[in-house]
Specification:
The structure is a homodimer. The first copy, chain A, is α+β, with helices and mostly antiparallel strands and about 210 residues long. Helix content of chain A is about 50%, strand content about 10%. The first copy, chain A, has two domains: about 70 residues, Glutaredoxin (3-Layer(aba) Sandwich); about 110 residues, Up-down Bundle (Glutathione S-transferase Yfyf (Class Pi), Chain A, domain 2). Chain A has a four-stranded mixed beta sheet, covered by helices on one side. Chains A and B meet through strand 4, helix 3, helix 4 and helix 5 of A and strand 4, helix 3, helix 4 and helix 5 of B. Chains A, B: Belongs to the GST superfamily.
Chain lengths: ~210, ~210
């Protein structure tokens, strides 16, 4: 019996979507509360004092406690289900993709999606503009690494559908909104189709 | 009975140190192989084809398989030990700090340590120089968040010493090499001393 769950979120965020997608796969209902990040609603004194001192969504509220970090929330929801491998190596290998997602994938692919789709190309700061080429090439490197890996396996870790596939699906399937062309990555495209075909799958705008 | 373990590393890296520190705490011997990252030894075709396609250390070799991502390697080593909480929330809360470390702490605090200590201030590129103020303020935000959290608890998660403390100790205890002053953070300094006083602790240069 789980406490009531409330997702503090900005729904178009891939980091929020991955939590909803995990909840759908484990059949766990969650309530949702929307914040407008563009209006600073996650930086108010009240938000910082209670929901997340880091000023970011998503945060998963579990009863009276708060769990920030999207991938930690996915792991919480998937705890004890087949989405989390029990084998020692397979478990660590799944975790490897979750850390890689936050270090090598999200800061490039999600950030460019946000810059182009939310900030707007004309409104980018000089510093953001200076960082575009580096983030573009790092994002391409990340996609190439995924494509190469998925040329040898149907799922990212443990030979089966795990939290790693959910977490990396979130921003990869909308990479083109960050102007990353997925045409050169046939193995990624086939994997995206496999993830979307899973029973209980929900789209990002559900 | 674990397979033989070989850490592919650059020993001054905090990401490599956290793996050695975890191994020390669980009493697991590991062999070590050193690469000079400044000479591109982790970007050779051989390294990319076998050790880590992402061209980075550390990678933990377990028998004939390779596990990149420092925090995943720590979790592998600590699997089934008291360093990893079993309780569902405590486990996710520990994971929260591990993801936060890779997203909010390492890219700022470890990067400035590397830029000042290895690249050298005079050799920084124009883009690195442009990113200094943002990384400085994000690093300070990260330290302030940790200090606030540690004002209320002795350990980062689960009310006890876990992998989260090991992982965040690695770059926090050398933050001054990135010119982050720890004087304003008494709770961090007390926590660093608690971590260093644990039985089996090893320093970064061991």
């Amino acid at each position: 019996m789980m406490s009531s769950l409330l997702l503090h979120e900005y729904s178009p965020s891939g980091n929020c979507y991955k939590i909803r997608l995990t909840a759908a796969h484990v059949g766990q209902p969650i309530e949702r509360r929307e914040y407008d990040i563009l209006k600073g609603e996650t930086r108010t004194p009240g938000f910082l004092a209670t929901v997340n001192a880091n000023g970011r969504i998503p945060t998963l509220q579990i009863g009276e406690t708060f769990l920030p970090e999207s991938n930690a929330a996915c792991l919480y929801l998937a705890h004890g289900t087949p989405l989390v491998p029990e084998d020692r190596f397979d478990h660590a290998d799944m975790m490897r993709w979750l850390f890689w997602e936050q270090y090598n994938h999200e800061p490039n692919i999600a950030t460019l999606r946000f810059w182009y789709g939310w900030v707007g190309e004309d409104a980018l700061s000089e510093l953001q503009r200076a960082n575009l080429p580096g983030k573009r090439s790092a994002g391409i490197e990340a996609l190439a690494l995924m494509d190469d890996h998925l040329s040898r396996t149907d799922w990212l870790a443990a030979g089966r559908f795990t939290v790693a596939d959910i977490v990396l699906y979130a921003y990869t399937h909308v990479a083109e909104e960050g102007r990353f062309d997925l045409a050169p990555y046939p193995h990624i495209r086939a994997w995206l189709a496999r993830v979307a075909a899973r029973p209980r799958h929900v789209p990002i705008d559900a």
